Amino acid sequence: MAYQMQKKQLTNDNFKHLTQKNDYNPQPQMKLKPIWDERFFLCKIPQYQYFKDKYNGKLILNNQHESSNQNQQNIQPNIIFEPGGKIRKIKFEQSISQNPHNRTFSKFISSKIIQKKKKKIKNVKEKETEENKYSNNPLVQHYINMQEKPLIYDLDNNPKIVEGYIQQLQKDINQQWEIKNIPHFHRKYFSESIKGLPNIQIVQNVYKELKALNKDRSQIQICIKVIQARELCLENLKQQIEQLKGHQDEEKNNILQQISQIINDLRILSLEVVEQILRWREMILHNHYKKNNLQNLQLPFYYNDRNYLLKMRDDLKIFKKSQLQYHVNLSVNTVSDPFLLTMQAQQIINDPQYVDFKQITHDCSHIIQRIRASELIIFEESLQRRVKEQFGDYVVRSININETNIRSFLESYLEKIHLDIKYSFLHNIDDIIKKIKEEQDVSFLKIESDGFYEDFQGLAIICLDKQQYYQVRRINILHISCIEKSFYNSIINTLVDYIWKNDTCDDIRVNLFYQQEENKLQLNKFVKNIFDQIGFKWKQLINDTITTKRATIFELKRPKNIVKKQIVNQQECIELKSLIIISEKSGIHQEITDYFQKFDVSYNLLKCLYNLDDKKQIEKIIEKNKNLQNIKGNFENISNTTN
User: Fold this and answer.
1) Which residue stretches, if any, does this entry annotate as coiled coil (predicted)?
2) Where are the alpha helices (DSSP H) in 68-198?
3) Judging by DSSP bridges, how do beta strands 474-482 and 456-464 pair with one another?
4) Residue 423 near residue 375 (C-beta atoms within 8 A)
């Protein structure tokens, strides 16, 4: 009995730390019934490191919210000891069921676990039946899955999938360009930049662009958003300047403070526009650098059909004549100041006329490097424009156009050109089409920028003068125009050189229409001066046969130093007055068709023969054809009876 009491006391001492309450856990802990094993006589029980147990993530511990350091220093209450010195964890259901207050919750958890297992088994069975409805052959299953699942562009993980994606990618990106309203110049530049690359690079670039478009993070979209923000800021500045006229003292000072803040925002947005356009240009030219090693290609960025970098150079000049000129240093700006650097504190105007006005000054020293770099980009863009205006780097190519799409083409193009150029020629589309039908050998020519990126700049419509063909070969210019008015001189020079090199004509003529200017009818001075500079001479004053408007004919003779091109078979001018199509048919209704064919063909043939001048030849042809003789006799009888 004493031995048993001593044994019980020893057992209680060894497991006393399992039943006492921990300081860090205010909740009462579950008391575990110790199980004695004579083989288990360790003085110190090893700590159970539950975070190292690979099954621990699937079980819920009672003290999961406690820190790992505290758990390592204390024996976990959710473990039991089995005979033989084994240590195992209590399952979640057992730990709950041992607490009498949690038996209802235990039932609820058990039911949830059972439902979850049933649902999992059901899903597995459904999946097996879905797979087994096809053949067990994995090759069959592979192609069935290809048919059911749409194409997924997963080039991030597998960039070697190429061939099947190119056509689908082209279709998708064209669709996204339409949905996102991406400008056409970007579409053309992007398509040209990837042309000639290996197929894998084409797919990767198009996929990258498509992915960015879907997230509205494409570089062209970023540029447009920044430009739109700058345009809104510029419009807000104009509105604030208008309010300066009707306010005094404190209200005026508040408006000036707002104007100062808007100008500062405008400067930052202008910097952002230039930098984003540069990033867009680098993105387009990245592949082109690798192909051709060209480092100096200039790509204009158009917004509302205008080169935006050139617009930034001039769009702040309108404030020189506004109320803002008395508060901001704008008079020093003699050339261009798109970032308003003249507003710096060290450049305050000392002119007496500005003494009575509060001056707005800014310190731009913290962004002066960005401003200078952006100014250099705008200067290079304007220099490139001047080179085009003076020398013109253009090529002329023919346009394949037919009567079905000529109207839509002219409608979209004529909206882009300047009115001074538009009204100097036939500008009504119906009149142009009627004129084209009357003339001989009409050609539509497009004038593009020469280089890697062909940029559509102008349109020319020329024809062969059919009235003076046998005396002298002459080319008439029915229309010549360009989108950029400042390029008009070089556009006309390019067309004239093209005609001299590709045709044997002796002279070139053009009709310029009169316009209502300064309350009188006269030729547009801008257009007339350009033709005079090139060498066109006044020839004749006429009234146009189609519009009945007054027009002047100008003529340019072929220079003696430009030799005619040697053409063996020169196209001749032929006017077709009548046409007959003769055909033979065979079939079930041969008699009926032959009857109508004989009558129609013979009648029309006889009519055409009588238009010829050689009467003897006509009689020979009629004698050899009985149908013609019968028709001729019938007409003679009818004419005799009527007489």
Assistant:
1) 227-254
2) 68-73, 92-97, 103-132, 138-148, 166-179, 184-194
3) antiparallel
4) no
Query: Coil, strand or helix: which one is 440?
Result: strand
Helix axes 219-242, 199-214, angle to 10 degrees: 40
Residue 7 is inside which H or E element, if any?
Answer: helix 2-14
Highest mean pLDDT among 67-76, 161-170, 529-538: 529-538
Classify each residue of 540-568 as buried b or exposed e, where b means 16 or more C-beta atoms within 10 Å of its C-beta. Answer: eeeeeeeeeeebbbbebebeeeeeeeeee
Q: How far apart are CA 57 and CA 406, in angstroms?
A: 73
Cα separation, 221 vs 181, in Å, equals 10
Give CA–CA dist 516/423, Å, rounded. Answer: 10
* Residues spanned by the domain of 14: 2-98
* Domain count of the fold of the chain: 4
445 and 417 housed in the same domain = yes
* CATH number of the domain enclosing 427: 3.40.630.30
Same domain, 380 and 419: no
Q: What is the DSSP letter of 88?
A: E
C-alpha distances (whole Å) from 497 to each of 212, 500, 558 are: 45, 5, 10
C-alpha span between 61 and 54 (Å, rounded): 14
476: left (phi over 0), alpha (psi -120 to 50) or beta: beta
Distance CA 548, CA 541 (A): 12
- Residue 15: which of 67, 62, 80, 99 has the closest Cα? 80
> Are 380 and 407 members of one domain?
no
Are 190 and 209 in contact by the 8 Å Cβ rule? The answer is yes
Assess whether 371 and 396 both reside in one domain.
no
The helix or strand, by DSSP H or E, that contains position 398, with its residue range, turns out to be strand 394-398
Q: Are residues 22 and 80 in the same domain?
A: yes
pTM, 2 dp: 0.50
Cα maximum dimension of the chain: 165
Tens digit of each residue's pLDDT (9 = 90 or more) over 401-459: 877 888 888 888 888 888 889 999 988 899 998 888 888 888 899 888 765 445 678 89
Query: Which region among 45-59, 350-364, 407-421, 537-551 has the lowest average model confidence (pLDDT)?
Result: 45-59
CA atoms within 13 A on the CB side of 114: 7
Q: Which of 511, 536, 557 lies at the terminal end of a domain, its last residue?
A: 557
Same domain, 260 and 303: yes
Report the 10 Å Cβ neighbour count for 69. Answer: 7
Assess contact for 36 and 11: CB atoms under 8 A.
yes
Structure tokens at 494: 């390019």
Q: Answer whether residue 260 is part of any domain.
A: yes
Q: Are residues 405 and 547 in the same domain?
A: yes
What is the rounded distance in angstroms from the CA atom of residue 169 to the CA atom of residue 540? 58
Contact 34, 83 (CB under 8 A): no
Kindly state whether residue 155 falls inside one of the protein's structural domains: no
Given CA atoms 197, 199, 200, 205 in this order, what sign does their dihedral have?
Answer: positive
Same domain, yes or no, for 422 and 384?
no
Using alpha carbons, select from 439, 344, 457 the residue that is nearest to residue 397. Answer: 457
181 domain-assigned: no
Distance from C-alpha of 631 to C-alpha of 622, rounded to nearest angstrom: 10
Q: State which of 98, 131, 150 marks the end of a domain.
A: 98
Q: Of 531, 540, 549, 537, whose CA–CA distance to 421 is shortest?
A: 531
Question: Which uninterrupted H or E stretch holds 370?
Answer: helix 368-390
Bridge-based pairing state of the strands 550-557 and 507-513: antiparallel
Q: Which of 77-91, 484-498, 536-550, 555-569 has the lowest mean pLDDT?
A: 77-91
